[in-house]
Design brief:
heterodimer, A: alpha+beta, 2 domains, 5-stranded mixed beta sheet, two-stranded antiparallel ribbon, 62% helix, B: 15 helices
């Protein structure tokens, strides 16, 4: 229902209901009063028992009790620790209303029969012995109250459900922000690692008086840092962007290793737009350089490949260096590999896999399998 | 303190306030209440309470309750009135009557001083006019004239010419009735308030209820004339032209509308009315110190369970006798507010000039023996009896007591089925029942009147029972009078009770409360007390309950 509908606005406004009640009361009082005007004026020909005041069903008086009933129900909750109070007051109200109905019945008889008011208790007593005490108002009150509480409880349950949904959404958002913060922290772990290695390379170049190359490395490093900082706020990047970043990185490393470093790319064209975690490949490439190429003078090949296999993206980093060191097999991989595993688990859960293994007769292969996506994961 | 906790306190306060006011009403004093003094305008006015609607049109009376009779017999005077003690006819509008030798023609002489309330003379033509009007009403009302020749045919539309009805005005003061058959109770039957005469101007006044606005337009021949008619009741004043007006001791009669007999009882206690009939409860429990006299009289009514003798085991007279012998007539009458009921052991109650007989008894052992003899020892194999009851009688305690006794003593089960009146009537017409609860009220104080129901064809009764010998006895009784007639009626009643086509259950006593200042109240089994006999005097004390 549109809130612009004026009736909806009235529907929600207590003054609308108050006006309706006043109007109904005016009708319920006015019509019998008008009908009984002759009797009220004291006409000897008029008879009370023939007026609406005398003949209308006493149940119409419920209209006047309605605000009291609704007020009591709205103010007396059965859910808090004062529920015995509420229950007791409802029972009292129901009994009183039933008593009022009996009293009204008796008053009407009293007036219709021109008896003095002192006979009212006797009439009430006579009505009881005649079985004319109606206990129906007790039942009506109980049913109305049960219905009102049922509606009230349903509304509260619905509101609770809505609140729970909102809390869940807020929790999810909070979790996302936490994950993002964790990723940022991980990235912050990567940056110094790479930075120290590169600065060591620059230091080495300077010590060897390879000033020009050192300047090129510093310039390349500056470019890398700029790109890294540009992507700081993003968890994902395209594979193409990652490869471009690697090229810059290898440009720096190529200065370190001179002509010995041979970089090969085996990337399917339809994979370049796939989204991958930022700086996913760089630590793997750095590991290959550190533990493979740099440890064996004969090692020189480093191959980056990317393939799409059944809606999955398979990324590999291969180097033809020596097998994995034994301590790494026993004590676990280094911080770069750990970070990569942790990031993949955070982002993809069980849908991503990372493996690092020897590739006989020589070389080591790092293999990352993750869902193939070209649009960001929500 | 929070808003919610304040709500509790406010609610408690408000409800306690209302509750206190209610307690004042519920627990206030109910005894020793003040008695209102009689207003000057009601001096020497007898005030009579009534709860059922009263009809002042004599030919449209709904039910002959005593208050209805009081107002009708106050306004209208029939030809005859019955002596309440002997049941014998007494002169009223007619001063004498004479039977023809064949007892098929009755000639009545009207009083020459009979006057309408406007001074016109009451003539035989007025009676002819009134009775012809009565014959145009429904059968229940018009049947009182069926003994007249052609009256039934005219009422049922088979005869168009009213001149052929057996009533004619020979002259202004002579009325001749020609009967369809011999009927010895006819003269007594002429006391029925239905048989009032009609002034030439009155029919239109009754028809359009003009009397409500112009009560003096209602011309009546009784001791009283209508003075006022409102929703609150009626007021009568002495008729200025009534022949015996000097003997009237009341200055008028006020009929006060009340909401039920309980209100009538309170109005009597409060001093607003002087007479309440019928009355229930104990006058000693009235909440004021007003001295009230209680009287009771036997009504000429009987309630009964008609046994459908065309159905199953009820065709066997032994079964019917067993049911009658095992009926519990006493227990229900001992229940609160049922004290006016009297167990019935015959069809005809006590009536003036003829005490009731005791023809039935209760004997459960004999009942079991008869049932076993009929092939149903212990009720084995006996079908469930069906007793349709009006939904209006849900509160009646009798049915449960009667059927419980049958089950416990005889092993006979009864399905008491509550039904709407129309549905119950339909069942009666189609004969789809085993037992039918019914009642009969006499219109004259004569046993023959109550027994005449057994002279009707079986289709008109709930039992569908007919007996030629009973019909013969009743016909013979109609031709004689006195002790000879009573003997024939007793023989007929014995024969009926021996065959048990119906089980009389209860007679009823009618109670009346009246203030001690009311004088002249007397018992009349037909509830046709005359206002002319009543008077008022100053209250005195030490008046105790009397039984008439």
């Amino acid at each position: 229902m549109s809130e612009r509908n004026p009736w909806f606005v009235y529907w929600r406004d207590w003054r609308f209901w108050a006006a309706l009640w006043v109007l109904g009361s005016a009708i319920l009082l006015g019509v019998p009063a008008w009908d009984a005007r002759s009797w009220l004026a004291g006409s000897p020909q008029a008879s009370f028992r023939q007026t609406h005041l005398g003949t209308w069903p006493v149940e119409t008086v419920w209209w006047f009790f309605a605000p009291l009933v609704l007020w009591l129900q709205s103010r007396l909750t059965l859910l808090d620790r004062r529920w015995p109070w509420a229950l007791a007051l409802h029972v009292l109200a129901a009994v009183l209303i039933a008593g009022l109905f009996i009293g009204l019945d008796a008053v009407r008889l009293l007036i219709a029969n021109h008896l003095p008011w002192s006979f009212l208790p006797t009439i009430i007593h006579d009505l009881r012995t005649a079985g004319r005490w109606s206990y129906l108002p007790l039942l009506i009150y109980s049913l109305v109250m049960a219905a009102l509480y049922a509606v009230s409880f349903y509304r509260e349950w619905r509101a609770g459900q809505q609140l729970t949904g909102e809390l869940r959404l807020a929790n999810a958002r909070l979790e996302t922000r936490l994950v993002r913060a964790s990723l940022d922290a991980l990235k912050m772990q990567l940056h110094p690692h790479f930075l120290f290695n590169t600065l060591n390379s620059i230091t080495s170049l300077i010590r060897n008086h390879r000033t020009q190359e050192a300047e090129d490395v510093v310039a390349g490093l500056g470019e890398l840092l700029r790109r890294a900082l540009d992507h700081r706020q993003e968890a994902m990047a395209t594979l193409e962007s990652e490869l471009e970043f690697l090229r810059r990185y290898f440009d720096i490393e190529r200065i370190r290793f001179q002509d010995r470093l041979q970089i090969e790319y085996d990337v399917q064209p339809d994979c370049v737009l796939a989204l991958v975690p930022c700086l996913l490949l760089q630590p793997l490439a750095e590991n290959a350089m550190k533990h493979g190429i740099s440890r064996d003078p004969e090692a020189r090949l480093l191959r980056i490949s990317a393939r799409c296999e059944r809606s999955q993206l398979v990324l590999t980093v291969y180097n033809d260096g020596p097998p994995l060191p034994r301590d790494e097999l026993i004590e676990g991989p280094g911080i770069g590999v750990q970070n990569t595993r942790a990031r993949l688990h955070m982002l993809y859960g069980d849908e991503a896999r990372f493996e690092l293994r020897d590739q006989p007769p020589r070389g080591v292969l790092a293999r990352v399998t993750l869902p193939f996506n070209t649009t960001p994961v929500p | 303190m929070t808003a919610t906790s304040r709500a509790h306190w406010w609610a408690t306060l408000a409800l306690s306030g209302v509750g206190g006011l209610l307690l004042l009403g519920f627990l206030g004093p109910r005894q020793a209440l003040p008695v209102q003094s009689r207003p000057a305008s009601d001096e020497n006015i007898l005030r009579v309470a009534y709860s059922q609607e009263l009809q002042i049109d004599p030919h449209r009376r709904s039910f002959p309750i005593p208050v209805q009779n009081l107002i009708l017999l106050g306004l209208w005077e029939p030809l005859i009135e019955c002596d309440p003690e002997t049941g014998q006819p007494q002169p009223a509008a007619a001063e004498s009557w004479e039977w023809a030798p064949d007892r098929r023609t009755l000639t009545l002489k009207l009083r020459p001083d009979g006057r309408w309330s406007n001074g016109d003379r009451v003539t035989a033509h007025d009676f002819v006019r009134g009775w012809r009007r009565l014959l145009q009403q429904s059968m229940e009302l018009a049947a009182v004239l069926y003994p007249l020749k052609n009256a039934e045919a005219f009422n049922l539309g088979r005869l168009k010419d009213p001149a052929e009805i057996g009533v004619e005005a020979v002259d202004d003061l002579t009325l001749r009735l020609r009967l369809a058959g011999v009927r010895s109770t006819l003269v007594t039957e002429l006391a029925d308030p239905l048989l009032a005469p009609l002034h030439a101007s009155t029919e239109a006044v009754l028809q359009d209820c003009r009397y409500r606005r112009q009560p003096d337009q209602l011309v009546t021949n009784g001791a009283f004339a209508l003075e006022r008619s409102t929703a609150e009741g009626f007021r009568l004043r002495p008729s200025g032209h009534f022949r015996d007006r000097t003997s009237l001791r009341l200055a008028g009669v006020e009929f006060v509308k009340v909401d039920g007999w309980r209100m009538g009882r309170l109005l009597l206690a409060a001093g607003r009315v002087d007479l309440l009939v019928p009355a229930f409860g104990d006058e000693k429990t009235l909440p004021t110190s007003r001295r009230v006299v209680s009287t009771s009289e036997m009504e000429l009514t009987v309630t009964a369970l008609d046994l459908n003798v065309t159905r199953g085991p009820l065709q066997d007279v032994r079964v019917r006798r067993a049911l009658s012998l095992a009926l519990d007539r006493e227990a229900p009458t001992r229940l609160p507010e049922q004290e006016r009921m009297t167990p019935a052991f015959a069809w005809v109650p006590d009536m003036p000039g003829r005490p009731g007989l005791k023809l039935l008894r209760e004997d459960a052992a004999e009942a079991r023996r008869l049932l076993a003899e009929a092939g149903y020892p212990g009720g084995r194999g006996f079908p469930v009896l069906y007793l349709p009851i009006s939904v209006r009688w849900r509160s009646y305690p009798y049915f449960q007591a009667w059927t419980d006794r049958w089950y416990h003593e005889l092993g006979i089960r009864t399905y008491v089925g509550y039904a709407r009146d129309e549905s119950r009537q339909e069942r009666k017409k189609s004969g789809d029942y085993d037992i039918y609860f019914t009642g009969l009220q006499a219109t004259v104080p004569d046993a023959g009147d109550m027994l005449s129901t057994f002279a009707l064809p079986g289709m008109f009764s709930g039992s569908h029972w007919e007996d030629d010998e009973v019909k013969r006895l009743l016909l013979a009784a109609d031709r004689v009078t006195g002790a000879e007639r009573l003997a024939l009626l007793e023989e007929a009643e014995r024969r009926v009770m021996d065959a048990v086509p119906t089980i009389p259950t209860m007679f009823e006593r009618r109670r009346t409360f009246f203030a001690e200042e009311v004088q002249g109240w007397y018992a009349d089994p037909l509830g046709r007390q005359s206002l002319r006999r009543l008077s008022l005097r100053q209250p005195v004390s030490n008046v105790d309950r009397i039984t008439l």
